[in-house]
Design goal:
The protein is built from 13 helices and nine strands. It has about 325 residues and is an alpha+beta fold. Among the domains are: about 140 residues, Conserved hypothetical protein from pyrococcus furiosus pfu- 392566-001, ParB domain (Alpha-Beta Complex), CATH 3.90.1530.10; about 80 residues, no CATH class.
């Protein structure tokens, strides 16, 4: 019932697009349902009808056409085809499945509604009518929406009214066109669902994940969880903890120099030694101690690099690198 209501909404929207609010084309691709005569329809020879040159659909399921033809033999054609005059013929605008099935059923005449439309209007109606297809892939649907936006300047809100689908549905379909072409092809082939594809939008490794989905037969929830884990920020490894030897050296330096010294190892195997001072006087004392160490040939040479933003600051930090 919900699907039928959606299709009725689409039929009314298409009728509004043609400027005829009473025209309901919702059943263009459905078998006839009773023996009543179509409203406002003319009957013309089926041989006078030619395929539409703007028909976006190029493939028709033979088995489905045979089934529709059998229904037409039993019940007739109730929903009229939509055509326009072209010379001495009538060009088909909408309802090509019904026209093909009527030919298979051997009918001489079919009901039509004749509208005077220009090429642009014919293409627009053909694109909208094509969205009635039940077996339309998500990518084909998205491409149809995009053409209506690009070529006819429809907004998503306007399309929502015309095709009877929510604006969010249209927006979600359009997002699929941002996927790599290889992934879009998998959706067209039915190997990936629209739900699978939506989860892959915006990912650099979309194709790699698509292959994983197919190989492991993942459902949509599993794909969403996989993508969510991939998007989690990687935790940085904590700096290597000081071993007992470094702690012992730190304590010995603090005791020997009478200063606050902190040794911090790095992940690369090196590290830094930080001398902290609380006043310029303490800084002078540190420099004096280092100079005394430098003069003592029996001690390792010390290469000190001082970094201060303000020479009169009350409390600063600087780093030194001890070189043997």
């Amino acid at each position: 019932m919900l699907e039928e209501n959606k299709r009725k909404s689409l039929g009314r929207g298409l009728g509004a697009l043609l400027g005829d609010e009473d025209l309901d084309l919702a059943d263009l691709n459905e078998p006839a349902r009773s023996h009543a005569s179509p409203k406002n329809a003319d009957f013309i020879p089926i041989s006078d009808i030619v395929p539409g040159k703007y028909q976006p659909r190029t493939e028709f399921d033979a088995e489905a056409l045979d089934s529709l033809a059998e229904s037409i033999r039993e019940k007739g054609v109730l929903q009229p085809l939509l055509v326009r005059r072209q010379g001495g013929k009538y060009e088909l605008i909408a309802g090509e499945r019904r026209w093909r099935a009527s030919k298979i059923a051997g009918l001489d005449k079919v009901p039509v509604i004749i509208k005077e439309l220009n090429d642009k209007e014919v293409l627009e109606v053909a694109l909208v009518e094509n969205l009635l297809r039940e077996n339309l892939s998500a990518i084909e649907e998205a491409e149809g929406f995009q053409r209506l936006i690009n070529e006819f300047s429809h907004t998503q809100e306007a399309l929502s009214q015309i095709v009877g689908k929510s604006r969010s549905h249209i927006a979600n379909m359009l997002r699929l066109l941002n996927l790599p072409e290889e992934v879009q092809a998998l959706v067209k082939e039915g190997k990936l669902s629209a739900g699978h594809a939506r989860a892959l939008v915006g990912l650099d490794n979309a194709m790699s994940l698509a292959k994983t989905i197919i190989e492991k037969d993942l459902n949509v929830r599993q794909v969403e969880e996989l993508v969510a884990k991939q998007k989690e920020p990687k935790k940085e490894k904590a700096p290597k903890a000081k071993d007992e030897d470094l702690e012992s050296i730190e304590k010995d330096l603090n005791r020997e120099l009478g200063l606050r010294i902190k040794i911090t190892p790095s992940k690369q195997g090196g590290g830094k030694v930080v001398l902290q001072y609380a006043s310029v006087a303490e800084l002078d004392m540190i420099i004096e101690i280092l100079e005394q160490k430098r003069k003592n040939e029996s001690q390792p040479a010390v290469n000190a690099v001082f970094k201060t933003d303000s020479p009169v600051a009350g409390s600063e930090k600087f780093s030194i690198k001890v070189v043997d």
